[in-house]
Design goal:
mainly alpha, acyltransferase activity, acyl groups converted into alkyl on transfer, about 270 residues, 12 helices, lyase
Amino acid sequence: MQASSEESARWWSTAIIRMAPGVIELRGRPIQDLIGTVGLTEMIWLMLRGEPPAPGQAVLLEAALVAGVDHGPQAPSIAAARMAATCGVGLNNAIATGVNLLGDSHGGAGQQCVELLQDICAAQADGADLDAATATVVAAWRERSRYLPGFGHRFHPVDPRRDPLLALVDEAVADGVVEGRFAAAARSVEALLNRPDPDRPDRRPVPMNIDGATAVIYAELGFAAPLARGLFVLSRTIGILAHAWEETGSGRRNKGPIPPSILPEYLGP
């Protein structure tokens, strides 16, 4: 049976864009009214949420996006994009190669930390004290994994992005832009992880990292947990693009993961 034009129109129905000859409207706003008047951060918010952000909300979102742009070639997504750029696949393919490595283990901690903070706040809503709720939720998370998303860093003793992000959150709380519930939950987790342990007096501190600090921002701004990963991908794509472009100009061909002078250790018979 042949589909009617009405059925075809409904098949791809969307509240995001109205597009017709001579017309482009994004969330009900003509594109010509947005060009030159709306920044990229505000545009991201508009597309995802349907309404423009308040100025204070835009400041927080932009800070989170800026903080996650890059972490160097030791990050698998960056390294893979740089290798791909030397293989003749084109810049778009190099970027896609890097983005496709942003999964649960590399790039997913922000989403996971939002879920952790949401669990703590949900336990609080049921009447639990914040520290008690934190202890219960953290214990449950550690039954599934010893890794707690958003805390500690394999490279930085203290993540240099943590303090400026949390300072902006504190300012936003003071200005009434966000409530601060998720920031309080994250700090409660941090306090629990760094509580003195007489059995381990030399234990290294476990401070909040970039994933925890941006998770606080995304949660405070009301973004769904999966969007924390999506927004991180948008941010990191900028770094991936920069590295892929730099590598394109290096003149290398078929760059591998280790220099040609180093051979992998053979473990066979």
